[in-house]
Amino acid sequence: MELDASTMTALWGAVILSGIYHGVNPGMGWPLAVSAGLMAGRPRALAKAIGALAVGHLLAMLAILLPFSMMTALISWQKEIRIGAGLLVIAAGMYLLFNRSHPRFLSRVRPSRLVLWSFLAAMAHGAGLMLVPIYLGICGAEAGDGGHEAARELMGQNIASAFFVAFAHTIAMSVAGGLIAAAIYFYFGLKFLSRTWFNLDMVWASSLILVGLFGIYATLRGH
Amino acid sequence: MTLRPDPTFHATAQLAMQAPVENYGFTVMLSPDGSQPDGIAVVDLNPKSDTYGTIVHTLLMPYTGDEFHHFGWNACSSSLSPLSGHAFLERRYLIVPGIRSSRIYVIDVKDPLDAKIHKIIEPEEVFAKTGYSRPHTIHCGPEGIYVSTLGGGGKDGTDGPPGIFIMDCETFEIIGQYEMDRGKQDKHYDFWWNLPQDYMVSSEWGLPPQFENGIVAEDLLSNKYGHSIHFWDLRKRKNIQTMDFGENYQMALEIRPAHDPKKSYGFCGVVVDTTNLQGAIFTWWRGEDGTWQSKKTITIDPRPEKAENLPPLLQGFEAVPPLVTDIDLSLDDKYLYVACWGLGEMHQYDVSDPMNPVLAGKVELGGIARGTKHPGGGDFAFGPQMVEISRDGKRVYWTNSLYSTWDDQFYPGQEGGQMVMAHVGENGGLTLDPDFYVDFPKGHRAHQIRLEGGDCSTDSFCYPNV
Please, which residues 234-253 of chain B have a Cβ atom closer than 8 Å to chain A? Predict the structure, then answer.
């Protein structure tokens, strides 16, 4: 497997872009940061809320990526794992596309428990799954660079990658969400909130399907 | 599901006040003896329209004997809750329960002039899925549509306490009981909440045998109607504090929290103090230690009256009690409107300081042993009752019926359904519009009013005013 630097850059770019995408989606929590800032009457509460949402999101990413990083140790099954992951992500997308009712358990979470809320929201919407094909692509690329390494070493490397991917994604997500929240809090006011709130349900579900297809395509093409 | 939030959803009460004004009102039509079906009257509220101030569409139900009372929307500004993440419901359906039949109608009012029944939930389904009966107040909230009930199970609704149940806000399927720990709560009436602060407040009228066939004077005089309000941890579904106003404060009915969710106070109207026949308003608030407190902040005195002018029920008292049956708070949390259904008066209090309300305006209309006529010349049966305020706070609408059997006891021999409107002055004050007088079709009385696009007793706001 020969991989050039541009593929690697593109994969990391996808990690960052998906972070921005999750960040601007109101479903991942930026309106909560606006609300927290306004209820407390100070911007520090807004920043604190963004922090709490980031922790929850990061945990949700790791909860999905780490099991896959363990599986990548099975080098001889790599292709099957990547195709299986792609199918899983597509299935999640299809489910969200056709089952449009929203998970009611999210509304049982207290407004003060932002970490838990963010974790559950990310899990319920398959936010972590969206990263899996990209992540597996990065793992495959790294393995390709170093030739045939010991499974143990590779796994260690892939676990480290999972952390890097989850961190980079979450930072991008928090910056994007934080910027929107701050813009509404400081400049535009709450009128902007309902005006910019688009229904991303279909787009979101389609993104999952698209990312899954991409993962399978890349695997079959040998990347 | 829509692509953008419904334009009638507003993040704050302030934004709702700046929104376009109402063009239509929806008012309950009640057949007091159950001889005709109940219905919804669509009233034209656009002053530029040729049909302004008239009923432009009437939707009658396929059954009789429902007894319509209160109703509400399938979705409101609470959809913009930052916790929901999906603000894409439409404010399109009115959820209208029959408090006598326990039947619930879902009415599609997307085109108000072509309002039609979307779904009917039969009483048996309500009983089977909730164990409650006699559904009453509707609010849309975090887990769907919340419906308070006045009765428990069994024929007379006394088998178990009444409570709240939840309906799915898209399919209108009944999900089940709300309460996980109801504490001392054993009666029910109204409820409302503060969504970001995650608390709910509920109130008490009486059990079905205490109201269905008329007010039970012995129960009232022995203080057996509700006199407590309950504070709930909304998402834990747990009663965290029951506050007893004192047993003489009979019928603690309407709960009106401040609309700005940053504030932790609200009001509750008490129909009658049995020690002196006064009407009373309590202000409730969260104290610094986190517990709930309350104080009586408004009292309204009865009016002495010769026994011969009074209905039999009141002759022994030789007085007209104010009977505070409904209250409503303007979206800026500035004016509290208090309907004195017995006296025949609508009061406007400036509650900028919620602990020290000041009477700012007053209108006389109808009333026991007074029967003040409308300035337009029409009769006003009974007294001012269900009150609704326009979002901008400039117009106040009200109707006249309390509850079929109670109307007949307090106003024997009277009949009619009227809806009127008063203008609010720049600095308070209340003046009836002589030209706005809706006389309901013969045989129907008028009860709660809902305004197109939301009003002051439906929408829950999730962000504080700035």
Answer: 235-236
How far is Cα A204 from Cα A92, in angstroms, rounded to an integer? 11
Q: Cβ of B12 under 8 Å from any chain A Cβ?
A: yes
B75 touches chain A (CB under 8 A): no
The complex scores an ipTM of 0.86
CATH code of the domain containing B359: 2.130.10.10
| B179 near A CB under 8 A | no
Quote the domain boundaries for residue A89: 5-220
Identify the CA nearest to A26 among candidates A207, A210, A199, A149: A199
Count: domains in chain B = 1
**Residue B4 in domain:** no
For chain B, give me the number of helices (H) and strands (E)?
5, 30
Provide the residue type at B296 as one letter. K
**Residues A16 and A169: beta-carbon distance below 8 Å:** yes
- Residues of chain A whose beta carbon is less than 8 angstroms from a beta carbon of chain B are 26-29, 31-32, 34-35, 38-39, 41, 100-102, 104, 106-112, 117, 121, 189-191, 193-194, 197-199, 201
Tally of domains within chain A: 1
- pLDDT tens for each residue of B257-277: 999 999 999 999 999 999 999
- Identify each DSSP E strand in B203-332 by its residue range: 228-233, 238-244, 249-257, 265-273, 279-286, 292-300, 303-304, 319-320, 324-329
Within a domain: B460:
no
Min Cα distance B77 → chain A (Å) is 10
- The CA-atom distances, in angstroms, between B175 and each of A105, B40, B132, B451 are 13, 26, 13, 27
Helix, strand or coil for residue B95? strand
| Joined tokens for residue B324 | 């505070």
Distance between CA B1 and CA A205 in Å, rounded?
15
Q: Are B107 and B74 in contact (CB under 8 A)?
A: no
Of A110, A112, A189, the CB nearest to B466: A189
Contact B91, B453 (CB under 8 A): yes
Q: Locate tokens 């009690």: which residue?
A: B321
User: How far does the CA of residue A151 sit from the closest CA of chain B (Å)?
Assistant: 42
Take residue B315 and report the two structure tokens written for it: 């002759």
Give the predicted TM-score (pTM) of the model. Answer: 0.94
Q: Which domain holds residue B88?
A: 13-451
Q: Residues 113-172, chain B: which have Cβ within 8 Å of A? A: 142-144, 168, 170
Chain A residue whose CA is closest to B260: A39
What beta strand segments (E) does B133-260 contain?
133-141, 144-151, 164-167, 174-177, 191-194, 199-202, 228-233, 238-244, 249-257
Nearest to A194 among B1, B5, B85 (CB): B5
B56, B72 in Cβ contact below 8 A?
no
Rounded distance between C-alpha atoms, residue B373 and residue B416, angstroms: 13
State the alpha helices, DSSP H only, in B63-137.
Answer: 123-130
Chain segment B286-343, per-residue pLDDT in tens: 999 999 999 999 999 999 999 999 999 999 999 999 999 999 999 999 999 999 999 9
